[in-house]
Amino acid sequence: MENNGGKTKMDFMRLALEEARLASARGEVPVGAAVVREGKAIATAGNRRELGKDPTAHAEILAIRRAAAALGGWRLSGCTIYVTVEPCPMCAGAIYQARIERLVYGAADEKAGAAGTLFDLVRNPKLNHQLEVTAGVLAEEAAEMLKAFFGARR
Asked: Which of 19, 60, 86, 101 is catalytic?
C-alpha cells in the first residue's frame, strides 16, 4: 500500500483538478493528471494538445513523461496516477506500459473510457500487468468542469 504522507486520494485528485483548470484556461479540454510516489506528487500535467499541436499531448502522457524524467527511468513501479477523467485507450496503454500500479480517476468517459467504462485495458487478464483502479473520486467536480468547458463552446 502506498504511503501517502498523510495526504488522501482527494488531495491528489484536487491537484489533478487544478491542472485541469489550468488546461481549460489555455483553451484545452480540462483534463489533469498527477503521478504520486511515496506520498509525494512527482509530476503533474494538464492537456496541451491545442497548444502543442500534438494529438498525444494528453495530461496522462505528459505526467508520465515528467515522472519518468524525475525518477530517471521508464518503470514507474510504486506509483499511482490520479486523472480527472477516465483515460482513453492511448493513455490507458501508456499507464500500462509505464508499469504504474494504481489508477485513480474522477469522471467516467462513456465515449472513450479504457479503464472500465467502454473498455478495460488496464485490468485485462491477457496482459502481463494489471492495475488497481479506483473510479469516481471527485467525479462530479471533474464532470462539471468538462460540461462547462464544452457548453461555452457550443
From this structure: 60
